[in-house]
């Protein structure tokens, strides 16, 4: 091989790490292309004293059968990357989509990955994957050039074959090229990816590749794995957050033959070969807990959060707020509130751990298998290379499955019992241990000039974080301050664990911003769309708003017009979105029904338009939940919502007519698709309600009781 | 406390020894290894565990195994025949009527029950019939479209319309 980029196997092995050596060993033959995605984990690796690969974090393998396999630590939880990533490879390599295999989230076979969240798979991993696939194709062309003795510039590729453009009978398949070889390369990122005009598979709608397994029931989720001698656990759950166990009598559980009671201080579990019997036996255990002391509940939480809020951080500032306020004709001040939300995936947190063998094997519903691997190793006091997470389907995550408590529980129980143990949280536990989307408050004071321009904007957000907080309208005098960064909150702020929830923070920030914008438009008697356009210079936002308006058939009128039309727009994960909603409100009950939602999205290159539309529809439907009903009720650390009877998520009868528009921008980089549209639903519905009835809801969700109260107050 | 229970499962005569007070859901999932039927809520609210007992869609988490004696049970695994997908399964695939896929078996079994009773349901009848099955990913509108197209396909007896 003449190419300087080529590494011999031995050379590769000498280089950095065990990890790569084991990958190379694993691959019997064929061509392997290592590549790098985003920031390398070397700093983290140093900190953790781990031997992580320092110069790649994903790889492609072209097998001796011509099939192409992508190994990545990303996981599939419904968002559809198992399809869109394969499309990128197939297109760049000129291989049929059916000949691409995706190996995802297996911590022994896939290189380290931070986790699947933040809409990063397509926008961060995607471009690197395309470069690597393009380079893999070039390696094959070079090999063919040698083999066929034809110059590279006369060769082209199609359907897994390299051929001579001047004599199509001179051809060789990828399988033949990879056969009997073991070639290891590192992608240099210098090979050009395809132009959009050359796409055959990307930017074309493709249905899901995991469809058949999922409609036949053969798709394996972690709760579906069966091992010989495995046991199922039911674990004692405290009645409220912060509860202390005073005493416990476990004798009752023993009336169930085969039930094994495990107790380590406050950690009490029943193991049984049948999960339902383990659950029944647990009921027979009689614990005594202390009484709750926390004075916090779902109503007084906002005062508490404002009281304990840390110093704010200015994230954007321009002009002079005081002067801006003086020069404004209309000034509006409003505080917005958003309660706690559950992730409520249909699959509860589940894990099966077999800690019996030399290698601890884990099947788990997790968004971050490599983090889980470290956590299990730490819990069991072993080295992480003795832990392996296996690939399984994940039944919805939405950010909630970045917390792996159930895996730790299963690991602990497997170690104690010496048997494989499955932990599958019941629905009540899922509603108790969830890392909820935090309650948050946004205070806005803003003003409009005599000419209908926004003139000042004073924005302070508490506990939602900075995602979506910064302003994108053109406002000469403005300030954005974020109190308590991110979703966590300091000790003593939230009464239970909080965490990232689909488009973290942005749902709250966009609800507040877009409600306030609407209020300003109404105050000066402007049409909500015209007012936004008058205050926007950002071309992408203008384009996406106009695209939504065209599809919706927006006709200008100041709100409240009685039509029940509302607008919201925003940016998330690099993607621009705008939505228009039509609602009707039942005056006697305060019940809002959403009739129609139109959503336009500019996500740059849309790799799989079908998958992108599916995600937008999912965002719109799921978003109706936090807009209309989802509100976790609690007092003194006790969660009152245990199941879907009181914690209402969107159902078929809620379904509006949904229309999506994807703005085709094949030359742009791909941006996020799984989260953006959900950020709009609070404000789109709230603004439509204002247009319908002239009432402004400043607190999410807009449950009928609150709407009814506002309607009655307006009537006077 | 264990009893012998006989029923027909996906067309096959099945004889099982189990505690009669156990639920059908866990007997299917553990004793019989049919894991397509999912646990979602444990209280019959979400529909993830829907199976057919004598042609009626029921919540397996609410059915005691003793009540199934002599009955005919069909789970998602029993819906396709001779390796050919049922038109509902095919329609769910064609419409991308799923994301994470966890609620999908229950959705399909409930839709199956609906179409048995009413082969050509209106949009409103589909919404009503599916109302008590929950999906968190928000695939609802495609599920409705899939049921509509399966209904056409089943009536025509060959292929299915888009």
Description:
The complex is a heterodimer of chains A (716) and B (162). Chain A has 716 residues and is α+β, with helices and mostly antiparallel strands. Chain A folds into 3 domains: 4-202, Aldehyde Oxidoreductase, domain 4 (2-Layer Sandwich), CATH 3.30.365.10; 222-290 and 349-424, Aldehyde Oxidoreductase, domain 4 (2-Layer Sandwich), CATH 3.30.365.10; 301-341 and 436-715, 2-Layer Sandwich (Aldehyde Oxidoreductase, domain 4), CATH 3.30.365. Chain A has 19 helices and 30 strands. In chain A, the strands form 7 sheets. In chain A, strands 12-13-10-20-17-18-19 form a 7-stranded mixed beta sheet. In chain A, strand 27 and strand 28 (638-639) form a beta hairpin. Mean pLDDT of chain A is 92; it is low at 1-18 and 45-52. Chain B is 34% helix and 15% strand. In chain B, helix 2 (87-94) packs across helix 5. Chain B is globular. The relative contact order of chain B is 0.15. Chains A and B meet through helix 7, helix 8 and helix 17 of A and helix 1, helix 2, helix 3, helix 4 and helix 5 of B.
Total beta-strand segments of chain B:
5
* General form of chain A: flat
Count the helices of chain B. How many?
5
**Most residues in contact, chain pair and counts:** A-B, 61 and 61 residues
| H/I helix tally of chain A | 19
What percent strand of chain A? 15-25%
Poorly predicted residue ranges of chain B: 157-162
Helix share bin of chain B = 25-40%
Strand order of the largest sheet of chain B: 2-1-5-3-4
CATH homologous superfamily annotation of the largest domain in chain A: Aldehyde oxidase/xanthine dehydrogenase, molybdopterin binding domain
Major β-sheet strand ordering of chain A: 12-13-10-20-17-18-19
Question: Roughly what is the average pLDDT of chain A, rounded to an integer?
Answer: 92
Which oligomeric state applies?
Answer: heterodimer
Q: Sheet bearing the most strands of chain B, described?
A: 5 strands, mixed
């Amino acid at each position: 091989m003449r190419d300087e980029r080529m590494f011999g196997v031995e050379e590769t092995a000498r280089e950095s790490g065990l990890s790569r050596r084991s990958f190379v060993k694993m691959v019997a033959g064929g061509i392997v292309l290592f590549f790098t995605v985003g920031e390398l984990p070397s700093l983290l690796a140093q900190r953790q004293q781990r031997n992580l690969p320092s110069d790649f974090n994903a790889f492609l393998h072209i097998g001796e059968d011509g099939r192409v396999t992508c190994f990545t630590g990303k996981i599939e939880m419904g968002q559809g990357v198992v399809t869109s990533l394969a499309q990128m490879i197939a297109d760049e390599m000129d291989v049929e989509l059916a000949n691409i295999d995706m190996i995802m989230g297996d911590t022994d076979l896939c290189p380290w990955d931070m986790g699947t969240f933040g809409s990063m798979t397509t926008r961060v991993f995607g471009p690197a994957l395309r470069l690597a696939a393009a380079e893999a194709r070039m390696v094959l062309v070079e090999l063919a050039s040698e083999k066929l003795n034809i110059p590279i510039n006369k060769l082209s590729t199609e359907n897994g074959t390299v051929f001579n453009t001047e004599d199509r009978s001179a051809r060789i398949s990828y399988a033949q090229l990879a056969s009997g070889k073991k070639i290891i390369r590192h992608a240099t990122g210098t090979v050009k990816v395809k132009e959009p005009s050359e796409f055959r598979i990307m930017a074309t709608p493709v249905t899901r590749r995991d469809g058949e397994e999922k409609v036949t029931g053969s798709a394996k989720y972690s709760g579906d794995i069966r091992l010989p001698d495995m046991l199922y656990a039911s674990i004692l759950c405290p009645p409220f957050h912060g509860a202390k166990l005073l005493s416990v009598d476990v004798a009752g559980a023993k009336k169930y033959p085969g039930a094994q009671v495990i107790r380590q201080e406050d950690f009490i579990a029943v193991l049984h070969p049948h999960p339902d019997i383990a659950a029944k036996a647990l009921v027979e255990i009689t614990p005594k807990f202390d009484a709750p002391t926390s004075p916090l509940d779902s109503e007084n939480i906002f005062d508490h959060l404002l009281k304990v809020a840390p110093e704010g951080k200015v994230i954007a500032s321009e002009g002079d707020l005081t002067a801006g306020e003086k020069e404004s004709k209309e000034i509006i001040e409003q505080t917005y509130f958003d309660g706690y939300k559950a992730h409520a995936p249909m699959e509860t947190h589940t894990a099966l751990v077999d800690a019996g063998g030399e290698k601890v094997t884990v099947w788990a519903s997790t968004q971050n298998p490599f983090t889980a691997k470290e956590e299990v190793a730490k819990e069991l006091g072993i080295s992480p290379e003795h832990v392996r997470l296996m690939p399984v389907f994940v039944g919805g995550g939405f950010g909630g499955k970045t917390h792996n408590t159930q895996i730790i529980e299963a690991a602990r129980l497997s170690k104690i019992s010496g048997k494989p143990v499955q932990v599958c949280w019941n629905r009540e536990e899922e509603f108790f241990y969830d890392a909820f989307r935090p309650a948050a408050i946004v205070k806005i004071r803003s003003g409009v000039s005599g000419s209908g321009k926004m003139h000042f904007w004073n924005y302070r957000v508490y506990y939602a974080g900075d995602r979506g907080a910064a302003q994108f309208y053109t406002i000469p005098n403005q300030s954005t301050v974020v109190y308590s960064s991110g979703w966590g909150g300091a000790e003593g702020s939230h009464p239970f664990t909080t965490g990232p929830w689909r488009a973290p923070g942005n749902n709250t920030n966009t609800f507040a911003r877009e409600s306030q914008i609407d209020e300003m438009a109404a105050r000066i008697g402007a049409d909500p769309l015209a007012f936004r356009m008058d205050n926007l210079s950002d071309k992408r936002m203008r384009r996406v708003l106009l695209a939504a308006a065209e599809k919706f058939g927006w006709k200008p009128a100041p709100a409240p017009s009685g039509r029940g039309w509302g607008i919201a727009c925003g940016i998330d994960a690099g993607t621009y979105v705008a939505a228009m909603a039509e609602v009707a409100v039942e005056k006697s009950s305060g019940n809002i029904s959403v009739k129609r939602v139109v959503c336009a999205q500019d996500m740059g290159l849309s790799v799989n338009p079908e998958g992108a539309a599916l995600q937008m529809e999912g965002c719109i439907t799921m978003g109706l939940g936090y807009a209309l009903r989802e509100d976790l009720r609690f007092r003194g650390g006790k969660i009152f919502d245990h199941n879907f009877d009181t914690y209402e998520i969107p159902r078929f009868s809620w379904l509006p007519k949904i229309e999506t528009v994807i703005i085709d921008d094949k030359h742009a980089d791909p941006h996020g698709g799984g989260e953006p549209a959900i950020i709009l639903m609070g404000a789109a519905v709230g603004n439509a309600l204002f247009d319908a009835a002239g009432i402004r809801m400043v607190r999410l969700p807009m449950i009928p009781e609150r709407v009814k109260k506002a309607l009655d107050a307006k009537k006077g | 406390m264990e009893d012998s229970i006989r029923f027909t499962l996906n067309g096959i005569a099945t004889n099982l020894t189990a505690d009669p007070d156990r639920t059908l859901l866990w007997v299917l999932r553990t004793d019989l290894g049919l894991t397509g039927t999912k646990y979602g809520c444990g209280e019959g609210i979400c529909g993830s565990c829907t199976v057919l007992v004598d042609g009626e869609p029921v919540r397996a988490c609410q059915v005691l195994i003793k009540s199934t004696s002599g009955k005919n049970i069909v789970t998602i695994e029993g819906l396709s025949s001779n390796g050919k997908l049922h038109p509902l399964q095919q329609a769910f695939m064609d419409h991308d009527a799923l994301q994470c896929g966890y609620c999908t078996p229950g959705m399909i079994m409930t839709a199956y029950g609906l179409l048995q009773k009413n082969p050509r349901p209106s949009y409103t009848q589909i919404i009503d019939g599916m109302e008590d099955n929950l999906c968190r990913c928000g695939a609802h509108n495609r599920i409705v479209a899939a049921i509509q197209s399966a209904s056409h396909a089943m009536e025509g007896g060959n292929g299915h319309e888009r």
